[in-house]
Amino acid sequence: MAESLIIERVNHVVRLRLNRPTVLNALNFRLVRRLAKTLEELDQDDEVRVVIITGNKKSFAAGADIREMAEATTADLMAERYLSSWLRIRQFSKPLIAAVSGFALGGGCELALCCDLIVATETARFGQPEILLGIMPGAGGTQRLTRTLGKTKAMELILTGKSISAKEAFDYGLVNRVVSIDELETASLALAEEIAAKPPLAVRLAKQSILKAFDLSLEEALHFEQNNFALLFSTEDQREGMKAFIEKRKPHFKGK
Question: Fewer Cβ neighbours under 10 Å: the N or C end of the chain?
Answer without folding.
Answer: N
